[in-house]
Every structure is written in structure tokens, then in C-alpha cells.
């Protein structure tokens, strides 16, 4: 392949310069200078590395600060103190109540008319009284949460200076020609409070390429994954999609791809900065703020680094099967099982939602076709009132088709993408558990080595080799230190994982809830529109004589 | 699952607006679905002297309905009338296949999923069943409402003879004959259609019906596709509902459960109702317009025959040979043609009135149903949202 041949030659070529566009009204001269610099970009030689063709996206980071309402930690602590009692309440009632609700609502069709009129009331009223009880439970889906001793500790750490950071990624801009285009856009950050110590300014924007995001993720992963932090995974590379965009196809599928990637990057960044530890990481800060970012080399899909990664992954998978860990803590076992189940369920759900998106798009197309057909029928009908009514029907159906289209988009961007993100996140979580196992393995290995050395030393005692004995003693001392370190590491990673998992679960529930609310709101809008359309049509239909 | 489904039907949900006449009322009071056939109980109430009793019931199968329809079509006396279209064959294959697949896949899904899917499929089966019963009933009612056809002897036999009519389905040879007859007929139809009609009314009707028939066919096909994709989307929602349900039960995210149930009901309902109102209406009028076209064809055929007979008569008179024979045949043709024309005009006017009334009824009902559902859904969604938001 020709492209492959270009590859080695272009490797030493340049990289991209990013410019910071500061929303700084007080110095117009500066901004003008910046703007001039921007044009230089287009003249710069562009990295032709084929496998690094990526979309540059603009990341706008708006940071606003507000302290978390003090009620939340207090609430949690109070539930903790009521621990066992609350448990039983949550255990029985919600499940029974909802079991009842589903029985009622899933009645067969002949009774559905009855259901419609009584509908909301029987299914919903039993639920309202206990909502106040359910509320504190939301963040803590499992009993173990209440009984865990380090619960207070977790809450204390989080109850501090939490904030809401807002990041938005704008649509990519293309720079350069044909195969060498890179999309570039402005990233603006705005901080509404000045007391944020982490950032120099309130609002700023930077330009970033897609590979920069992947680079950030790989850096964070290498630093934090092995000590137990759940690092949010970055969106995946898609060579097919990117090629289409590169070639400049301005059709719907490439637009969708761009939009999909843009929102994925936005969500990725938001998740990363929501993590209290990751936010403080210098790499993240540099990514968000600095104008100049060294190019991420190791993110190329088919590079040597990439191959190395794949080999490592395979090796890890094999190792996982051979490690037989003595699990002393039931919490971890249970959690692992829980995440396995969640993984399976989410994947299934994701597949169903994707299928739904596809069918809804199909429905939209078919509705449009039907609308045209109905219009034709109306035209050929010689009874004037009926003809008019049929044309109206055609118009209504056309509007409905647009509704379906919008609904399909909502399905996708809200639901399906969220599920996809969580499927990947759960893989990251499982990775973290695997790291814990590896840490344990290392600890055990060094312990066994120590044991062997001790035995060897014991044997040496009887031989007359003082320097070898001394050497053995030194080695033993070193190994003892290692064993202690291993144990400490293991304890640390276990502790971190507990914290992370609880944070993850909280975030997950919050995320899902927000998305479901948004989704339902979109459904509400759809229904309201439908009502409007059909209400307009009804008098027309009645007017047929 | 049992292969026998019996349905107790409520007073008919007619697709077509028909006047009910006290002298002859026909309906299908019961139906039984067996493995490969459906048995309809045809119930008649009549004050006519032709029948031995005032009220009686017989059991009929689909083939017997077809036999009755064909006997009308083949009867020369009815050439001038729009013969009510035959009801379509009961087709449960798709539904049965789905149920079978469900049965086979029982092991792979949870109990709740299985029962839920089974319920949905059974409801679908029931819906198809009700529809086919309605189609058969409409056919009988149309015949009973027609001033001439209701007097037909075959019809009375059909209604009254309480033993098996021993109507066998057409064997291969007869089916082949039918096929050829249709080919000839359509070729002839093309020929005959070219003949310009003297009467403006019929000329207009011809062009109108041709175009209308094609458009109804198109609209019917498109509405079927639309409804099929809506059903697919509804099936997906069902699957999402059941998996979210299992998700919720294990994670106790009870709120999601609520919303999911809501979603499920919304989509499934809308799909089913659209199907009933719109698609059935269009399909029915597809068949009716075909029947009207057939009428026009017969008339045109008679016209052509009449004109040919005229020409033959002129020729005979010129040659002064077989004049009487030619005269009688010409008179026959003339008589036939005029009879057809007279009744055809009325039939076509009735057809239009019926069509307009049926469309009106169905469109109004469709709009009202859509509104009802949308409003119900809206209410459900809003209360669900209220709970979700109230829980923050």
C-alpha cells in the first residue's frame, strides 16, 4: 500500500502548533496578533502520518464553581447511623411495590382502555408515600455500603470542595487539504469563580486534536490504573469513519460521525474532570490549559506502541486465568460478580437500544413515504372534502416522520451513547480489579521468594562461606522490605478501589437518572407535538360529508 | 400453547358503514381457530319468508366464503353489480412461527421475559384473528345489504344449510385454469379499456378508478411498511423494557422500572391502533376498487360485444343472410349492455358514497384514537417525570 510506504518517511516531519484564543477584551491588540498567528497554521506543514489522521476538536471548558450543598454529606451520615433499619425498609418495600406496579400496568389489551383512564393512579400512588424513604437510598444501591467501616472516611474526603465544571467541545474545523486535513477548533474555558486554585484563568479555550485526547488517556491510564483508580476510557478510534471525513464527504453519515465523536469527547472530558484526583493531575491541567501540547505518539492504531499494547493485553488475559487469588475480603468478590452481571445486562441493553435507533430511523423513512402516497391518493380522490382531508393526513404524517427522526436522535445521543460509555467504563473497572489481583500476585511472589531465600540462608549457615552468607542476609533484608511494600501496595489499592467503586456507583446512578429524565422529557415533547397535530387534523376529518 | 383459540366477539366492529336492515341481519357470532383452519359461526336473524326459521346459526370455513363469492362472480345476472370483494385467507403463519420460536428459545431467557413475550405474541395472534373474523363478517354484511345479492339462492343456502357444503378448494388444474383466465381477462381488459365510451359518466369513472386503484395500492403498501417498522420499534422497546426490568430488580433502580414500563406501553399501543384503522381501511378499499374496476370491465366488455353484434347485424343485413340470428344476438347484447349500464351507474354512485363515509369514519376514529393515546401517554410520562424529579 502506498500509504504504508509514505509512513516511515514522514515520521520525522513536523507537528502541529496550537494557538490559544483568549477571550480577553481588554487587550484587542493581543487578540489580533493571535488571530494572525492562526492563519500561519494553515501554512504549516502538516503531519502526514497516515495512522495519526484524527479529528481535532475544540474543547471548551467552562468552569463554574459552587460548593456542594452541605445537606448531602449530612444526609448520608444520617442514613449510615440508621443503617440496619433502613436496609430492611429498602429490601422489601420498593421491590414489592414495583412488582405490583408492573402487574397492573402490563395488562392485556382488552383492558387497556380501562387502564388508560385509571392508568396513572393505581400504578403510581402506592409509590409516592415511600419516596422520601427511597431518596437517601439512591446513591447507595447496596447494603454493604451501609455496613462498611470506612464509609464515614469516604464521605469525609468527598464532602469538601466539590465543584461543577462545564466543558464543551465544539465542532471540528478542517485545516489543510485532502488526506492531510486535520480538524481544528477553538476551545474556550470559562471559570465563573476566581477562587479556583487549579486554573490560571476563568475562561479559556484551546485547540486539540483527537490523538491528544487519546494521549491524555494513555498517560492517565499508565499513572493511575495500576494503583486502583478508575480512569474513564477515551472514545475509540475509527479508521473508516475518519477516512470518510478526511475525504471530505459531506453526507449525513459523516456528519453523524463527527457529531458522535464530538459529544463522546465532551462526555469523556467531563468524566475525567469530575474525578477529584484526576482533575488535580498535571497532565490533565496541561491538556486543558496549555497552548502547546507535545504530540501523542503512542496512540497510533497500528504503531509499534499499539502492537505492544495488544501483546500486553493478551498476556494479561492469560495471566488472569492463571492467578488464583485467595480472596479474603468478600466485598471484592461480590463487587466483581456485580460488575460482571452489570456488564452483561448493559451490553444487552445497548444492543437493544441500537436496534431501536435503527428501526426508528426506518420508521421515519417509511412514514415520509406513506405521507407522499397519501397525498397522491388525496389528489386522485374526486370528493373534495375527502380529498382535502387526505392531503391533511399526508401533512400530519410528514410532520410525524420528522418527530420520529428527532426521537431517533434522542434515543441515540441520550440513551445509546450513555450505555456504550458505561460498557467501556465497566471494562475499565474490571481492569482495576485485575490490577489489584496483579498487585496481590506480586506481593505473594516476593513473599515466596523471601521464603526461598530464607531457606537458602538456613542451608548456608552450615557451610563455611561468610561472604555468601552476608550476601544472602542482605538479599533477605531487601526482600523483606519488598514484601512489606507489596503488602502496603495491596492494602492501598484495595482501599482506593473501595473508594472508587462507591464513587463510580454514585456517579452511575446519577448519570442514568439524569439521562432518563432527559429522555422522558423528549418523549413528553413528542407526545405534545403529536397532540397538536392530531387536534388540528380532527376537524378536517369531521368536515367530510 | 394451545392450538385452539376461541373468541367471543362483541357486536361487530364494521369497517364499512352499512345500513342494518331488520329483514336480514347477518353476523359472525363466534370463531374457532384450529391448527390449520378457522371455523366461523355465521348467525342470521331474518324476517324473510324464504327461511325456515327466524334465527339460526351455521358453521362455515373460509373456502365456503370463497365459493360463495365465486358463484356471484360467475353469475351472468350479477354482471352489473359490484361484487363485494372476497375476504382474505386467514394467515396465522407469521404469528405461529414467532410463537414457535419463542417456545424453542424458552431456555435462553428469564421467566419474566418469557411470559412477557408470550403475552405480547398472544395479543398479536388475537389481533390477527379478530381482524380476519371482521373481514369475513364485512363480506357477509355487504351481501346482505345489497338489494339484489341478498336474494341469491346460494347465499341462502350458505346461511341456512347446517351441514357441510362440501366445497372443496380448487385443485391444481382448476387453479391453473383460473390463472389463464386471469391472464386473458387482463389482456382483454387492456383492449377493452381503449374503447372510448359514449357516456361521460362512465368515461370519467373509468379514468378515476384506474388512477385511484393504483394510488390506493401504493398507499396500502406504504402504510403496511410503516406499520411494520413501527412494530419493530415496539418490539425493541419491549426487549429494552424487559432487560431494564431485570437490571432494575437486581440494582433496585426502581425508578427506571417505572419509566420503562411506560415506554413499552406507549409504543405498542400506537402501533396496533394505526394498523387497525389506517391499513385495514386502505386494504379494504384496494379490494373494493378492484371490484369496481371489474364491474367497469364487464360493462366495457358488454359494450364491445354490443358494438360487434351491431356490426355483425349490419353485415348480415347487407348480405341478407342469417339476419334473424344476428338480430336476436344483437338484441341480447343490447339488452345485456343496457342492463349493466343501468345498474352500474347506481353501483358506482353507491360505491362513492360508501367510500367517503368509510374514510370519514375511519379517519375520525384514527385521529381520536391517536389523540387519546397521546394524551394518556403524556399524562403517564408527566407523572413519571414528577416522581423521578421529586426524588432528587
Automatic annotation (TrEMBL), chain A:
Residues 163-295 form the PX domain. It is a peripheral membrane protein. Residues 74-93 are annotated as: Disordered. Residues 469-496 form a coiled coil. InterPro entries: AH/BAR_dom_sf, PX_dom, PX_dom_sf, Vps5_C. Its main location: other. GO terms for molecular function: phosphatidylinositol binding. Belongs to the sorting nexin family. This is Sorting nexin-2.
TrEMBL record, chain B:
Signal peptide: none annotated. Residues 18-165 form the PX domain. GO terms for cellular component: cytosol; endosome. Gene3D superfamilies: Arfaptin homology (AH) domain/BAR domain, Phox-like domain. It comes from the Eukaryota. GO terms for molecular function: phosphatidylinositol binding. Keywords: Coiled coil, Protein transport, Transport. The keyword Coiled coil applies. GO terms for biological process: protein transport; retrograde transport, endosome to Golgi. Belongs to the sorting nexin family. Involved in several stages of intracellular trafficking. This is Sorting nexin. The lineage of its organism: Eukaryota, Metazoa, Chordata, Craniata, Vertebrata. The gene is SNX6.
Amino acid at each position: 500500500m502506498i500509504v504504508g510506504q509514505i509512513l516511515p518517511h514522514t515520521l520525522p516531519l513536523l507537528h502541529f502548533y496550537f494557538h490559544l484564543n483568549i477571550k480577553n477584551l481588554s487587550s484587542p491588540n493581543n487578540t489580533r496578533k493571535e488571530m494572525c498567528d492562526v492563519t500561519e497554521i494553515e501554512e504549516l506543514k502538516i503531519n502526514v502520518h497516515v495512522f495519526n489522521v484524527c479529528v481535532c476538536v475544540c474543547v471548551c471548558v467552562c468552569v463554574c464553581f459552587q460548593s456542594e450543598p452541605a445537606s448531602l454529606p449530612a444526609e448520608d451520615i444520617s442514613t449510615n447511623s440508621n443503617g440496619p433499619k433502613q436496609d430492611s425498609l429498602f429490601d422489601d418495600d420498593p421491590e414489592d411495590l414495583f412488582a405490583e406496579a408492573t402487574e397492573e400496568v402490563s395488562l392485556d389489551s382488552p383492558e387497556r382502555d380501562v387502564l388508560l383512564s385509571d392508568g396513572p393512579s393505581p400504578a403510581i400512588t402506592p409509590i409516592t408515600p415511600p419516596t422520601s424513604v427511597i431518596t437517601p437510598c439512591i446513591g447507595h444501591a447496596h447494603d454493604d455500603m451501609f455496613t462498611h467501616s470506612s464509609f464515614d472516611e469516604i464521605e469525609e474526603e468527598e464532602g469538601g470542595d466539590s465543584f461543577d465544571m462545564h466543558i464543551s467541545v465544539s465542532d471540528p474545523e478542517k485545516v489543510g487539504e485532502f488526506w492531510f486535513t486535520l480538524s481544528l477548533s477553538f476551545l474556550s474555558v470559562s471559570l465563573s469563580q476566581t477562587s479556583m486554585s487549579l486554573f490560571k484563568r476563568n475562561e479559556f479555550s484551546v485547540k486539540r486534536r483527537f490523538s491528544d485526547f487519546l494521549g491524555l488517556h494513555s498517560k492517565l491510564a499508565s499513572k493511575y490504573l495500576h494503583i486502583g483508580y478508575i480512569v474513564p476510557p477515551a472514545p475509540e478510534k475509527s479508521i473508516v469513519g475518519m477516512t470518510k471525513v478526511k475525504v471530505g464527504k459531506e453526507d449525513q453519515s459523516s456528519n453523524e460521525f463527527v457529531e458522535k465523536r464530538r459529544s463522546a469527547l465532551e462526555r469523556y472530558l467531563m468524566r475525567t474532570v469530575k474525578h477529584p484526583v484526576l482533575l488535580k493531575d498535571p497532565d490533565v491541567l496541561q491538556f486543558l490549559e496549555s497552548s502547546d501540547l507535545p504530540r501523542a505518539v503512542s496512540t497510533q492504531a497500528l504503531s509499534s506502541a499499539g502492537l505492544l499494547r495488544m501483546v500486553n493485553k493478551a498476556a494479561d488475559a492469560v495471566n488472569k486465568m492463571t492467578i488464583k487469588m485467595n480472596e479474603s475480603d468478600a466485598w471484592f468478590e461480590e463487587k466483581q460478580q456485580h460488575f460482571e452481571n452489570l456488564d452483561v445486562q448493559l451490553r444487552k441493553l445497548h444492543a437493544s437500544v441500537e436496534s431501536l435507533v435503527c428501526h426508528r430511523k426506518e420508521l421515519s423513512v417509511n412514514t415520509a413515504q406513506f405521507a407522499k402516497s397519501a397525498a397522491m391518493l388525496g389528489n386522485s380522490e374526486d370528493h373534495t372534502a375527502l380529498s382535502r382531508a387526505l392531503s391533511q393526513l399526508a401533512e400530519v404524517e410528514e410532520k410525524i416522520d420528522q418527530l420520529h427522526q428527532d426521537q431517533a436522535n434522542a434515543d441515540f445521543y441520550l440513551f445509546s451513547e450513555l450505555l456504550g460509555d458505561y460498557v467501556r467504563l465497566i471494562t475499565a473497572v474490571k481492569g482495576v480489579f485485575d490490577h489489584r489481583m496483579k498487585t496481590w500476585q506480586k506481593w505473594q511472589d516476593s513473599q515466596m521468594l523471601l521464603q526461598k531465600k530464607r531457606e537458602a540462608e538456613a542451608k548456608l549457615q552450615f557451610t563455611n562461606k561468610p561472604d555468601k552468607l552476608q550476601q544472602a542476609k542482605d538479599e533477605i533484608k531487601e526482600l523483606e522490605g519488598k514484601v512489606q511494600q507489596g503488602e502496603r501496595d495491596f492494602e492501598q489499592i484495595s482501599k482506593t478501589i473501595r473508594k472508587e467503586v462507591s464513587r463510580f456507583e454514585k456517579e452511575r446512578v446519577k448519570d442514568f437518572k439524569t439521562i432518563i429524565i432527559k429522555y422522558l422529557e423528549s418523549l413528553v415533547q413528542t407526545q405534545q407535538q403529536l397532540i397538536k397535530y392530531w387536534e388540528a387534523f380532527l376537524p378536517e376529518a369531521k368536515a367530510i360529508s | 400453547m394451545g392450538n385452539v383459540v376461541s373468541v367471543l366477539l362483541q357486536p361487530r366492529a364494521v369497517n364499512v358503514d352499512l345500513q342494518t336492515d331488520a329483514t336480514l341481519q347477518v353476523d359472525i357470532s363466534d370463531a374457532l381457530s384450529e391448527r390449520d383452519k378457522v371455523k366461523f359461526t355465521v348467525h342470521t336473524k331474518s324476517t324473510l319468508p324464504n327461511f325456515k326459521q327466524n334465527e339460526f346459526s351455521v358453521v362455515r370455513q373460509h373456502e365456503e366464503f370463497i365459493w360463495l363469492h365465486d358463484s356471484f362472480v360467475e353469475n351472468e345476472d350479477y354482471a352489473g353489480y359490484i361484487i363485494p370483494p372476497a375476504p382474505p385467507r386467514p394467515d396465522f403463519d407469521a404469528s405461529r412461527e414467532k410463537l414457535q420460536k419463542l417456545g424453542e428459545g424458552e431456555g435462553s431467557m428469564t421467566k419474566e421475559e418469557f411470559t412477557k413475550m408470550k403475552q405480547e405474541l398472544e395479543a398479536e395472534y388475537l389481533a390477527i384473528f379478530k381482524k380476519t373474523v371482521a373481514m369475513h363478517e364485512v363480506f357477509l354484511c355487504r351481501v346482505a345489504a345489497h338489494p339484489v345479492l341478498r336474494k341469491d339462492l346460494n347465499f341462502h343456502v350458505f346461511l341456512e344449510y347446517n351441514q357441510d357444503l362440501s366445497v372443496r378448494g380448487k385443485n391444481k388444474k382448476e387453479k391453473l385454469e383460473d390463472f389463464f383466465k386471469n391472464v386473458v381477462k387482463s389482456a382483454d381488459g387492456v383492449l377493452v379499456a381503449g374503447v372510448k365510451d359514449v357516456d361521460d359518466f362512465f368515461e370519467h369513472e373509468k379514468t378515476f378508478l384506474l388512477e385511484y386503484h393504483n394510488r390506493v395500492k401504493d398507499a396500502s403498501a406504504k402504510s403496511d411498511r410503516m406499520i411494520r417498522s413501527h412494530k419493530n420499534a415496539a418490539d425493541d422497546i419491549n426487549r429494552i423494557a424487559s432487560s431494564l426490568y431485570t437490571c432494575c430488580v437486581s440494582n433496585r433502580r426502581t425508578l427506571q422500572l417505572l419509566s420503562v414500563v411506560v415506554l413499552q406501553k406507549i409504543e405498542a399501543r400506537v402501533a396496533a391502533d394505526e394498523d387497525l384503522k389506517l391499513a385495514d381501511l386502505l386494504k379494504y378499499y384496494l379490494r373494493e376498487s378492484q371490484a369496481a374496476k371489474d364491474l367497469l370491465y364487464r360493462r366495457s366488455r358488454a359494450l364491445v360485444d354490443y358494438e360487434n353484434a351491431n356490426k355483425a347485424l349490419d353485415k348480415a343485413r347487407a348480405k341478407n343472410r342469417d339476419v334473424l340470428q344476428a338480430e336476436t344476438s344483437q338484441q341480447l347484447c343490447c339488452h345485456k349492455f343496457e342492463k349493466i349500464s343501468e345498474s352500474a351507474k347506481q353501483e358506482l354512485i353507491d360505491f362513492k358514497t360508501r367510500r367517503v363515509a368509510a374514510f370519514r369514519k375511519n379517519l375520525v376514529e384514527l385521529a381520536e384514537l391517536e389523540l387519546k393515546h397521546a394524551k394518556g401517554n403524556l399524562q403517564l410520562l408527566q407523572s413519571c417525570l414528577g416522581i423521578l424529579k421529586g426524588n432528587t
